[in-house]
Amino acid sequence: MAHRVADIGDTIDPDADWSLPGWLYTDPEYFDVEMARVIRPSWQIVCHASDIARPGDWHSIDYLGESIIVVRGDDGVVRAFANVCRHRAMRLVEGASGCAKKLVCPYHAWTYGLDGRLTGVPMRGDYPALDMAKNGLAPVDVDIWQGFVFVRLDDDGGPSVAAMMAPYADEIAPYRFEDLRTISPARERRRAVNWKNVGDNYSDNLHIPVAHDGLVRLFGASYAIEAEPWVDKMSGQLVERHSASSWENFYQRHLPPAPHLPDSHQRLWLYYKLWPNMAFDIYPDQVDFMQWLPVSPTVSVLREMAFALPDDRREMKLVRYANWRINRIVNAEDTWLIERVQQGMASHSYTLGPIGASEVCLRSFARKIRERIPEARLHRAPASGWSRKP
């Protein structure tokens, strides 16, 4: 199993050989600090640009108590706004997606254009303090990378999605992300785990040969990991030896050629985890996206979507189904693992554990957490109120 880590800076992390301590996975006060310093300033995927192709098309995402909508304007521009009326804070739209010529509040019928401007207020003269120009929808940062639409709640000067993915731009180019289309809309699964446990497990290389028999049958010893400053990469080549598992065997034998991919990628599975809580699973047959959105210190929501290039071949449709069956088992195995790790993090007996030299992705993630929250270096939780002290 290969592993590689990129140079991520000149400073030395004194805690580089140690995991993040267990209290970071259960403590409510720390959770609030982490949301402010890590999740709010980070990009979160909403949808593919093709999902909002026409003026008025919109998609939404809810996290950290916020509801955000991305909408394509009459001018073709994609914008993002808080899904909150400026009058009495009513939500403007419900659900995951829709289409509207204008955004009308269902409470008092305040009306907004697709560019966020406040354009209509019933009994407008009844509001002495109202300034129409200053009461448009609250804008939210939006970034479109390779056809995917991202938003972030706060801007701390962090990198764009393109900058994060720059080390792998050439590698993913053949997959034609901008031409992908949604084949499975966003679905959500609630899990009794801290969000970091999901990401830690995603980038953990050492558990593959122990806990995922199916991936071992598919990849053999080819599974490899590496860490760039903002992205972890995992990969595996399908072996020629056919699996005894029916769906794995079917996938191996019937995976059709992908004309847009080079020979080196025809039987390659790629995984990219973007800082701090998103991942692309890239297969010859399709591209899956997953993010793990924090709900509380011990609860997360897994939000997943699947995309593919248009392909009407019957074998491609069957192979995509086989892919889903294979990964459903892998996901169940991972859920069993991380729920028990979460329980262990709550034990007073656990502080932190050593990280192996090969665990380059876990090292990279832990380093970035410690850089943003110095208290993350403490082995046990400090006295309550630490986050409010000068």
Give a written overview of the molecule.
Helix content is 24%, strand content 27%. The protein has 9 helices and 18 strands. The protein has helices spanning 28-39, 161-165, 169-172, 195-202, 208-211, 213-219, 246-254, 314-345, 360-372, and strands at 2-5, 44-48, 57-63, 66-72, 78-82, 97-99, 103-104, 111-112, 118-120, 139-145, 148-152, 181-191, 224-227, 231-237, 268-274, 278-282, 287-296, 299-308. 35% of the residues are buried.
Continuous helix count: 9
Low-confidence stretches: none
SSE-based structural type: alpha+beta
Write the element-wise H/E pattern from the N-terminal end onward. EHEEEEEEEEEEHHEHHHEEHEEEEHH
Percent helix, as a range, is 10-25%
Spell out the key features of this protein.
about 400 residues; alpha+beta; 8-stranded mixed sheet; 9 helices; 18 strands; about 25% helix
Summary of the model, kept short:
With 390 residues, the chain is an alpha+beta fold.
Which secondary structure elements does this structure contain, and how are they paired or packed?
Blueprint: E1 2-5, H1 28-39, E2 44-48, E3 57-63, E4 66-72, E5 78-82, E6 97-99, E7 103-104, E8 111-112, E9 118-120, E10 139-145, E11 148-152, H2 161-165, H3 169-172, E12 181-191, H4 195-202, H5 208-211, H6 213-219, E13 224-227, E14 231-237, H7 246-254, E15 268-274, E16 278-282, E17 287-296, E18 299-308, H8 314-345, H9 360-372
Parallel strand pairs: 1-13
Antiparallel strand pairs: 2-11, 3-4, 3-6, 4-5, 5-10, 7-8, 8-9, 10-11, 12-18, 13-14, 14-15, 15-16, 16-17, 17-18
Helix pairs in contact: 7-8
